[in-house]
Amino acid sequence: MLTTKTIILKMDCSDPDPLDQTVQTYTDGMNYVSAVVYNLGKPKGSAALQKIVYSALREEIGLKSQMSCNVVRQVTGTYRTLQEQVRAKKTVWQQIMYAPTSMTFSFGRDFSLDGDEIGLTTLEGRRRYRFFRYPHMEQYLDGTWKFGASKLVKHHDGTYYFHLCCERETETREVTKSSTFMGVDIGQNFLAVASTTDRKCRFFCGGKAKDLRNIYSTMRKRLQSKGTRSAKRMLKHLSGRERRLMTDMNHRVSKEIVSFAVQNNVDVIGLEDLSGIRDRTQTSKKQRYTHHSWAFFELQTFIEYKAREKGISTIYLDPAYTSQTCPRCNHISKNNRNGRSFVCECCGHSLHADLIGAQNIESRARTYRYTLEVQGCGQPPIRELSIR
Hints:
With 388 residues, the chain is of the alpha+beta class.
């Protein structure tokens, strides 16, 4: 199974002008191709689109050959995603405009890595830039990982970072040959609750995420209501801090979850397929921000790729009624759950509601394993990842 990681390298750019010019021209090329696709009314394949726009990208806009190819592939992917959202009636067909904040490079074609230097192709030719090499990066730069298409990203303060994409094959046990499972219930009161086949359980990060969201939400409201210059400066200073803290929290929690799975010899981790949950559920106005800022997908993605590195498979299961089903007698009722407590109205079984959800997810993971075995299937399809 292919494991993918993105390593963020901070670059030491004493002369950023060539990069600024290259990123701006690259963005002009993407906006040009975006206008072409928008006027066509539907996305085209990258090969067919490249025949239409390649000469203009090279001669009129002034991009290098590989840059032109990367532009076409990137815009094609964006409009394919837009088309899927249009079909799901989540948005309408529209022209996408790009900002000069990033560009894509292909390893071996327009970027190379040598020691603590990155060679990048700019409009002025190949330039070499140093990056800060930290100890935790060494495992990805020792030659066991292959490099793929990566991104140069410009932050709002003008600093450049290189998002290096690394990948390698790892061995994971097939679901049909697995014997120990673990269900993970993702929530807001507790970021995660895990339960294994032998009923070992653990709660992770209770209430900290919700408290963090509430603190920054209240802080922003207070500063926005003042509207002074100092308040605006403070809002700018706080920009992105909440997101970074939540990402760090999800990294730490996912690491603890996978460590707990390794300690209990878990072969497969079961997760809920929560895609579209914000469209399906309604919340009160007071809880709306907490609900819509819930970073469940990021946490699940971190769990998935960290588990894959340890040889543990992950599967996504239907989340319907996992918090309303009694794991002892399988009775389903809304009345079984009241807040954080669960008491089955049929058999009287009582437990923490989130732990009930984790146990039901683990049970469905085992059922899924037997279903695959009966159908003669092997490994389930892997969900596409967007890894930090």
